[in-house]
Amino acid sequence: MSLTIRERCQAVTDCLFEQGVIGIAKIAAATGLSKSSVHRHQQAIARRNQYPESLWWESQTGSQWLRVMVLGVVYYFGIKHGVGAESLSEFFTAIHIDAHVGVSASSLRLLKRKMREAIIAYEVAQQEHCHPKDGQGICVGGDETFFGLPILVMLELASGFIFTEVERPNRTYATWQAQIQQWWTRCGWHCHFMVSDGAPALIKLAVSGLGSVSVSDLFHVLSALAQPIGSDMGRQISQLNKKAAALQQQLLNVRSEAKQQQLQQSMTEISAQQQSLEQDKMTYHQVLHCLTQVIHPFNIKTLEWQLFDDLSARLNAPLAQMSALAKTYGAQKGSKAIDTFQQQIPSMAQGIHAWWLWVIQALKGVTDDLDVQNWVLMYLLPWAYWQQQTDKTRNPQLKADYRKAAEQAYAQLLKHPMTQQMDSQKSQEWVDWAQWMSTKYQRTSSAVEGRNGYLSRLHHAARGVSEESLKVLTIIHNFNLKRADGTTAAQRLFGHPFPDVFESVINSMGELPVARRSSKTKRSNPLTQAIFPA
């Protein structure tokens, strides 16, 4: 097999590094190249060596590292983050590798296109390893994002694996149904529930298309509840602050004692109104905090199971407080938001109920021992669940409450006789199972919202996302993006690791483009002329 230009050049460079300054004939004899080829490569090497580090790029080690670096920049910045070819070209020129690699904008566009094709080929090669176990349970979330035509996004919430991410002319049920057929009908998935923002097409998709339960997204439900009351409250606070600032300014400029007393009286009234508003604002945030705490499979105080009746009863008090606030703030919109929230309670309870059925079904598939089942359901699972919620949330107050519940559950778990009697290996297996099962309860589609935000940033950075680019980004999300534990979405869903995407891609990319010789090329470094004489 004939050598490439880079391989012939490396052979000449290695020969000179090993044997020092020798004649063209000796180099040709040592490398097996013709004397004219050796001479051309010596001239090219001398021409490229403009900087102190340039000689290293000529060596085999340096050339290999240069290849990985260039492909890595194109992959991680050009493809994953939407940086344009012009900016990449500017960067490569700034770090002095434009004489060693073809880094013009046109060359980099071709390189990006070739890399996208390699990434798509990677997914095709992994398809045979992406089959679920028979009846494997999933919980999905779906939503749309808009940059012109809607992009339909559906992913498995526990693992983050994207099943559907395509641009389509509309977001009707028929369009959604056509997309899920590509992965739903040919695989043995069992969808337990689907979380969405309540769009009619998505509700129908959950019930009729997936044969599962439709669950209202808690994030959207709470936002819809909070918006009219919170915005009106904030507007009134802002107006009072402006009035107080204006009165304060008038007090500084008024000299009449009677006028000052009048202004002081107005300031006192406004101060009282501000205090009342701040108290209502505190109550408003406490109610939202309470609602967030209540909607869980376990009671945060008693750690007992929580089903529809328990959930409805515990929501009555905070909703009554919110109704009282709505009489002052939000007017008719606030009352309507509360009514809408109450209508969503059965849907959120269905999500909890569906998860509990999933837990019991999965647990029976692992053990028939009733004592072990009771221990897992009543003691181990509450601790695993609240510990996971503690790790997930970023709200300091919620984190403190969840941590308190986890500590209480852990204390009860340690006191149970089965916990003390079980050997460490078996107990660790049950802990892993409980943690895995806890991830399956999902009450929001925030993963979908996060994905939509990521696509939005790329869309604006790249001034649009093509169909091919969208497909490539989906593959990278599923097989390359990693969580803190080092797992990818595909690994979490299918239960086994996959080859590294970047390593697989660079192994199939071949040689980097060769830099073209320009009439504006600088003269070679005088130091290199001694090593590589023309």
Short description:
The chain is an alpha/beta fold. Helix content is 67%, strand content 7%. It has helices at 5-19, 24-31, 35-48, 54-58, 60-79, 85-94, 105-126, 173-184, 200-209, 218-253, 257-294, 308-326, 331-366, 370-392, 396-415, 417-421, 424-438, 446-462, 467-479, 489-494, 501-507, 526-531; strands at 136-146, 150-156, 162-167, 189-196, 213-216.
Rg estimate, integer Å:
32 Å
Give the overall form: globular
Question: Based on DSSP secondary structure assignment, what is the total number of beta strands?
Answer: 5
Distance between the termini: 28 Å
Strand content: 5-15%
Structural class, please? alpha/beta
pLDDT under 50 segments (min length 5)? 519-524, 526-534
**Average predicted confidence as pLDDT:** 87
Secondary-structure topology with pairs:
Blueprint: H1 5-19, H2 24-31, H3 35-48, H4 54-58, H5 60-79, H6 85-94, H7 105-126, E1 136-146, E2 150-156, E3 162-167, H8 173-184, E4 189-196, H9 200-209, E5 213-216, H10 218-253, H11 257-294, H12 308-326, H13 331-366, H14 370-392, H15 396-415, H16 417-421, H17 424-438, H18 446-462, H19 467-479, H20 489-494, H21 501-507, H22 526-531
Helix pairs in contact: 1-2, 1-3, 2-3, 5-7, 6-7, 7-19, 7-21, 8-9, 10-11, 10-13, 11-12, 12-13, 14-15, 14-17
Give the tags.
alpha/beta, 534 residues, globular, five-stranded mixed β-sheet, disordered C terminus, 7% strand, 5 strands, 22 helices
Can you offer a commentary on this structure?
It is a single chain. By secondary structure, the chain is α/β, with parallel strands linked by helices. Helix content is 67%, strand content 7%. The protein is built from 22 helices and five strands. A five-stranded mixed β-sheet has the order 3-2-1-4-5, with helices on both faces. Strand 1 and strand 2 (150-156) form a beta hairpin. Helix 7 packs across helix 21, helix 10 packs antiparallel against helix 13 (331-366) and helix 12 packs antiparallel against helix 13. The model is unreliable at 519-524 and 526-534 (pLDDT under 50).
